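Fill in residues.
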């Protein structure tokens, strides 16, 4: 499928999805959101894709929801369309691991989209924020919830109530991002991590993702029970047999996604 606001590339088992609406710093309008949902679902359904890298430009991952597009919406429109959540939640339903490679601005919906990915690798020029309060709104795609869970109440309140931006170093310090690298190395680092993941068994990496995400949904005892049941189920896969056999035989495993 041809996209107007996305560039898609494939490197081995890694699908690279680049937000490409430079005239608006990749702000999410309906067209971009519809295309992104479509591209993520297509990658997720493709058995040849074992990891996704979502990225933007050097200046902006995404500067949020498109303010010009939503400025005149009425409450009834927003409510009846279930504005935003309807297809925004799709991104968090993708089962293939997704790395967000973030350079420049990740603000509002851009920060929320980065938090919906499985982990963030940030360039040293990245800036994260939930500035909705500065335009008379609040985060609407999980920002208050995910940020509070991921970096704690103090930082989440600070970010959402003041609308300030947080640089990459602070974001790494507080656990919002996994790694910070020089801007020029962002894509190489993200691709290296993605290829590492894609080199493992696809069903097993999906299980890992599902288990880690479970930690945010249920109490610890239930999460541990869930993890143990999934752990038991790996013994039903050929890839577990191959992985452990390869270790014993001191060779590299040859996973088959089976
Ligand atoms: N929406 C629409 N257009 C935007 C947006 C945006 N969020 N951000 C930037 N643009 C446009 C600008 O209007 C400008 O267009 P034009 O040249 O036609 O005037 C162009 O992008 C370049 O922007 P600037 O000239 O402002 O660039 P600067 O380098 O001076 O500033 C900033 C960059 C600081 C990022 C600045 O553009 C800015 O503050 N942007 C808005 C950030 C913001 O408030 N984001 C939150 C939006 S609300 C939101 O995300 C709610 C989330 C709800 C869930 C998700 C729903 C999809």
């Amino acid at each position: 499928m041809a996209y107007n606001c996305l560039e898609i590339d494939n490197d081995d088992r890694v699908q690279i999805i680049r937000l490409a609406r430079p005239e608006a710093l990749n702000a999410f309008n309906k067209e971009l959101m519809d295309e992104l949902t479509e591209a993520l679902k297509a990658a997720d359904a493709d058995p040849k894709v074992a990891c996704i890298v979502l990225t933007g430009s050097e200046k902006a991952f995404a500067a949020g929801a498109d303010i010009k597009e939503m400025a005149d919406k009425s409450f009834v429109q927003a409510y009846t369309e279930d504005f935003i959540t309807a297809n925004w939640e799709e991104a968090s339903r993708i089962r293939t691991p997704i790395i967000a490679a973030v350079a420049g601005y990740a603000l509002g919906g851009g920060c929320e989209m980065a938090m919906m990915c499985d982990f963030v690798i940030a360039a040293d020029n990245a800036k994260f924020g939930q500035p909705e309060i500065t335009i008379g709104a609040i985060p609407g795609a999980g920002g208050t919830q995910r940020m509070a869970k991921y970096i704690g109440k103090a930082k989440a309140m600070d970010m959402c109530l003041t609308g300030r931006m947080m640089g990459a170093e602070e974001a790494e310090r507080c656990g919002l991002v996994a790694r910070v690298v020089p801007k020029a190395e962002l894509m190489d680092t993200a691709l290296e991590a993605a290829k590492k993941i894609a080199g493992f068994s696809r069903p097993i990496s999906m299980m890992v993702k599902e288990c880690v995400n479970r930690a945010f949904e249920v109490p610890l005892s239930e999460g541990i029970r869930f993890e143990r049941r999934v752990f038991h189920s790996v013994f039903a896969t050929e890839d577990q047999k191959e992985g452990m056999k390869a270790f014993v035989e001191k060779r590299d495993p040859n996973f088959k996604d089976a």
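Residues 24-25, 27-28, 33, 63-68, 84, 88, 105, 107-109, 112, 131-132, 135, 137, 139-141 surround octanoyl-coenzyme A (CB under 6 Å).
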